[in-house]
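[Discussion] Sanity-checking designs against the backbone

I'm trying to build intuition for which residues belong where. Below is a structure token string of 64 positions. I'd appreciate it if someone posts a full sequence so I can compare it with mine line by line.
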């Protein structure tokens, strides 16, 4: 997975962190959690606030 795979990342995060408060999630935590996913293999420096926000929104949608 890469940073641009926001939906796949959101699905994986929901499986690993089903009880997370994703609305009030700090981007620093989200950044760390994404990198900790076993399927994730991308440069940590390629992320930015816009990508993290897109992952968060996809995760909220996934949870609905």
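Best answer:
Here's mine. Compare freely.
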């Amino acid at each position: 997975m890469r940073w641009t795979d926001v939906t796949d990342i959101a699905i994986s995060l929901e499986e690993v962190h089903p009880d997370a408060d994703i609305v009030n999630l700090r981007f620093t935590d989200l950044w760390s959690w994404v990198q900790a996913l076993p399927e994730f293999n991308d440069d940590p420096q390629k992320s930015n606030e816009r990508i993290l926000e897109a992952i968060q929104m996809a995760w909220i949608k996934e949870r609905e």
